[in-house]
Specification:
2 domains
């Protein structure tokens, strides 16, 4: 597991993130590697640490579509994200309620 933490750090281009957090993540991962029974206790702590230093999708904002320069289909699949994107495209001058238009064409 420690190897994966190191690999993730390198793949991320060793961003200017919390290096103390990185070392803490490596320590958790090393402990888990040495004794897998620690996984249930340290696994959640490792995940939170990795997220805090930006080495998970959630930590990079990919899940919510907030990571700069990152495009990810996961980010645009939720109905909330689709609605927010549609509202952003519509712009502030668009009519919010088109019921009157529908009413005049229905008769």
């Amino acid at each position: 597991m420690e190897t994966e933490v190191i690999r993730s750090w390198r793949v991320a281009g060793e961003p200017p993130i919390d290096k103390a957090g990185y070392w803490l993540a490596r320590t958790y991962a090393r402990a888990i590697d040495q004794d897998e029974e620690l996984l249930s206790d340290l696994g959640p702590k490792l995940e939170k640490t990795l997220t805090a230093i930006g080495l998970t999708a959630a930590g990079r904002g990919v899940v919510k579509g907030k990571a700069e320069g990152v495009t990810n289909d996961v980010a645009s699949n939720s109905p909330e994200d689709q609605l927010a994107e549609a509202r952003k495209r519509r712009g502030p001058g668009a009519r919010r309620n088109q019921a009157s238009t529908l009413d005049t064409t229905a008769g």
